[in-house]
Design brief:
heterotrimer, A mainly alpha (about 375), B alpha/beta (about 425), C mainly alpha (about 300), A: about 375 residues, 2 domains, two-stranded antiparallel sheet, two-stranded antiparallel ribbon, C: about 300 residues, mainly alpha, about 75% helix, globular
Chain lengths: ~375, ~425, ~300
Amino acid sequence: MKRLRIYYPVLAAAILIVLLHLVLAVTGKIYYMTQVTMSAYYALVVIGLCLLMGYAGQISLGHAGFFAIGGYTVAVLTTHNLSHYRAASWAESLRSLGMLVQWRNLYEQDVLSFSPWVAFLAALLLAGVIAVMIGLPVIRLKGHYLAMATLGFGLIIYRIVLGAKLFGQADGISNLPPFHLVGSLQVNGRAPFRVQNYYIAWVAVLAAMVLGLNLIHSRVGRALRSIHQSEEAAHSLGIDTYRYKLATFVLSALLAAVGGALLTHYNGSIGPSEATVMKSVRYVAIVAVGGMANLWGTMVMGVLLNFLSLRGVFGSYDDAVFGAILIGVMLFAPQGLLRVPRLRAIFFVGRASSLAVQKLVRAQRAAVLRTKATCARRSHG
Amino acid sequence: MRTRLAGILGVLAVGCAVLLCGCEKEPEAPAPQQQAKDKTPPAAQKAPDAKPAADATPIKVGAIFAVTGGASFLGAPEAKTAEMFVEKVNQAGGVQGHKIELLVRDSGGKAENAISLARQLIDENKVLAIIGPSTSGETLQIKSICQEGKTILLSCAAAEKIVNPIVSYVFKTPQKDSDAARRIFQTMKDLNITKVGVVISNDGFGVAGGEELAKLAPEYGMTIAGSETYATTDTDLTGVLTKIKGLDVQAVINWSIVPAQSLVAKNMKQIGLDVPLFQSHGFGNIKYVQAGGEAANGTIFPCGRLLVANVLPDNHPQKKVLVEYKTDYETRYKEDASTFGGHAYDALLLLVEAVEKAGSVESAQVRDALETLQGVVGTGGIFNLSAQDHNGLDQNAFEMLTVKDGQFAVYQK
Amino acid sequence: MTFALFVQYALSGITVGSVYAIVAIGFNIIYCTTGIINFAQGEFLIVGAMTAISLAQVAPLPVAILGAVLITTALGAVVELVFIRQVRNASVLRLIIITIGLSILIREAMLHVWDEQVRSLPYFTGTAVSTVTLLGAHISPQVLWVLGVSAVIVTALTLFFRYTTTGRAMRACADDRMAARLCGVNDRWMVTLSFMLSAGIGALAGCVVSPITQTQYDMGAPLAIKGFTVAILGGLGNSMAAVAAGLFLGLLEAFVVSVLPASYKEVVALVVLLLILVFRPSGLFARRETSALRAA
């Protein structure tokens, strides 16, 4: 019974989303939907990042890299013209399976390329594999080292997409086909599909929220929270900290890749500006201001701030706003602006065990400090 | 539990409220048109290609420029020029009796902002045309949006890919890269140079230029001994140039934007690579000469005639337009005019001419009129558009310029 | 490769490497006293250079540079007093985010104060076209200035830390802050001083390198990343190793250009960074015990 309670906010959110649509339609501002939809896809990234930063306690300054991996994979696979292989047998068999499709692009040319579903799954697979490859060595690191390693990763992705001809270099890739989901539903940025895509985007976001909430309220979630509080204590309780951190890292990477893939189809294009360090920093800023351990707050802030930014409300101070948010939040409201009280206690089974764990944490910390002091004395001897 | 739920609901409600309210900065469109368009159900709604022109309704023209950020050396002068041009037109009574309402938006050089702003201008503001964006990357990403929205796009970005392959609603005003390459090679041929080294930056402009150079070199009997791509953000190019020096070239071509242009000039002199330096038409601002100091003297490059407007012969067809633009810009904004701002001038000029020729403000008719414009004198050259040529400039739009004693001068052999 | 070509690449590498080393030393000074990695380190160089360029229009060059160094030092103090000191019991995560936010703010402030144009200081000696020949390679005389100033900075700092009371007090804070405080050292003032020192040497390095690399408002971040790579390569906190590591990275970048296309130069530093972080986060020159402690 307790489990179902956590989904009530999802229901409330769904109602509010429909309400928003009605309000926009009535006031004649239906075109706002475009930017809300774009912001919703960006929110997918920050939901994943919130799980990583707020619950697993790992910073990532390179999440725009995973967004770019998702977007670029989808872009390359759906636009790369394989027409000259049309006659080949493998091409024929793939076409009959529906994995290769033929369509006409903006220039009235016939293009034979992978179907968007194949591309989407490939993007997820690639993002997951890269996340594991990067995560395995990097999750071991702490603090500054982890931050720099993720920053380095993000930068390498940026350099690759900027430099490789396959990825269109500085111009990026344009003219993607729409992504036909089911029946007549398609991810498509054109005006006739505006309302449809609004709901598609929000369904994706709410699905991610359900996934996140599920995670938080499960054993895994509690394990993550204990890791965030004190890794040594969690480790001593038998929690495989490394595996949990890695799993959260990969999950957040997948969410970012989904956001990237869907937004690329929605926009019809992607460019290297989606993989910059500044983008990664913006995601971190949004998680910080939404509340590191506050999934709903992060999601709302993600949509809100990206919406304002896309509408040009911040003008030439766009980057400065996010920098100021970062500093402001860290100095004055480290728990985020949308602090919800007593959030921590809820994740422990009953207050009693929560106190017990805190006691254990303190004892462990003291023990570690003593060991450090002894070593220091010895090495400086 | 209940407080938590209330908190979350409250947060979501606040979020929705903010989304609704204070974001509208531009003035509302005239009420009757607005409601008429929004009543059509979304599924059946197609981007209107008939924009009924009531009398004295302003013509809405959108502009997306990279006013700030990495490409602001392009976007800032373009935005200033556009505002200046529109003010002048409106003071003279407007176009066909309508005043122009210019909606300038800052994309910061970021493609996703350009996409969002383009959609905003087309769906929300229902503009007749969009001027800009400033960079090729942004233009290519909004190309299909403008085409499908049947909104004229007059780009101020240089890539040939913008108008080749052609789509009906997309035009561009900067000169062709291939023409610049041709003029460079022709000048080299006249100097009996056959072996060149090429250095290009890894952004869109540099890569596109590098491709043109490679493609056209054989036509002029040139051999490109070596071609090196460096990062735009590189602060030291001595390594790259040393590599080129080792190939015994007779000249160096640099195709990039700031800051590499002046850096290449300085580094070349410092490592003792004493051969003529040719630059692209991106060298169009006196500040780059100043940044290069003495090293910039002797650079040869093709450029629009704006920079040497004052020394043109009086009977030159472009002289009046150029001098007028240069004087107006420099008096008003107290800074040197650059060829980049000229691209925005040309874009608006073409639009105004097309509206006058079409005699209407309906986008399809204006578009058709654009394709028939001939002999329009702009800052970048004299435009002759057609259905196959959505740029309208040829080799003669360029003048070969050089730098003498820190000033631009016409190149004479 | 001829010897002259080799020397050319080597000199190019050493020049850029010494700038990386100065940035890394700036990182180390702050890290030692506070444990914070200051992501805004690169911005100090650019602020120093930009201020000097503005001042050089109204004052002779040496005065302009001195003024710029002083102003940037003051900026470093302000940054520490206003932002860092306010944060109590801060987790590493919070401090990282604050310094990132600071680097963004400083950069945007520079953009609005100075605009995005590329500028440079006048050459200290000679002009944009003068060159000197060294072992067969041609370089600008400014390169010698860069090498000279970097060497002076490193020497001065070494002497400062070894022989002056303040220097030794800062080292004490780096070793064990509590113990230093017990010995009567004002550790909070030491923290401010470390920021001021880092900002000052950064500004000086920015000024001396500005004529050859030119200065633009957004050059700070890439410098900070390379500087951090160098700092980690040498081992965080170890300044002499930072110098060696800086020269190493500079030379590596320069010689990579001779075999691979030039656009791979940027990737070199990043790959080095990731390799070092994964395999030897304590740096190439660290002792085994310290590496065990740092991983904890």
